[in-house]
Design goal:
With about 170 residues, this protein is α/β, with parallel strands linked by helices. The chain is built from five helices and six strands. Strand 3 and strand 4 form a beta hairpin. Helix 1 packs across helix 5.
């Protein structure tokens, strides 16, 4: 029987990866970092133009190979940066490739943003996954770049919800 927790994330500027690592350490989860074959520009206008365009156009960029045996997990945490009010395209690719394998699992999600749009992005992910609701969600503003007590409190709450899901599974 599946018992594990998997964190799947895409991180462009390190914030989403920072949180994925914090979750991994707290709950002993496995982690998959999604990496597009063709990297998005890292700075300036290009970064926002290409990332935003790709997100708005609902593109599904080709990802570098990753190993996933979905049967090993009953809980999956999906993390992503918010781009143009929606999920980052590598997450869209992952869901289109693995959506059926995620069915019946407990899914939690978190979004990292610099501005706004996290609620809308989480809702788009929920619809894309075809699930009625997430077990828990969290929206953080640049957690690695601008650490603060509010972010720590949200993370703590999210981890408690995740640990509760893991306990339910173990019973």
């Amino acid at each position: 029987m599946a018992m594990g927790t998997l964190v799947v994330y895409y991180s462009h500027s390190g914030n989403t990866g920072y949180i994925a690592e914090a979750i991994r350490q707290a709950v002993n989860a496995d982690v998959i970092s999604l990496i597009p074959e063709k990297a998005y520009p890292q700075k300036g206008f290009q970064k926002f133009f290409w990332g935003g365009k790709s997100a708005v156009m609902a593109e599904t960029p080709k990802l570098k190979k990753y190993d996933l045996d979905a049967a090993k997990y009953d809980t999956v945490v999906i993390g992503f940066p918010v781009w143009a009010g929606t999920i980052a395209p590598p997450i869209r690719t992952f869901v289109s490739e693995q959506g059926n394998n995620l069915s019946g699992k407990k899914i939690l999600a978190y979004a990292c943003q610099s501005g706004a749009g996290g609620e809308k992005a989480l809702e788009k992910l929920r619809v894309l996954l075809g699930i009625p609701s997430f077990s828990a969600t969290m929206i953080l503003n640049d957690p690695k770049d601008k650490p603060n007590a509010a972010t720590e409190a949200k993370l703590e709450q999210f981890l408690m919800a995740l640990q509760k899901e893991q306990e339910v599974t173990e019973k």
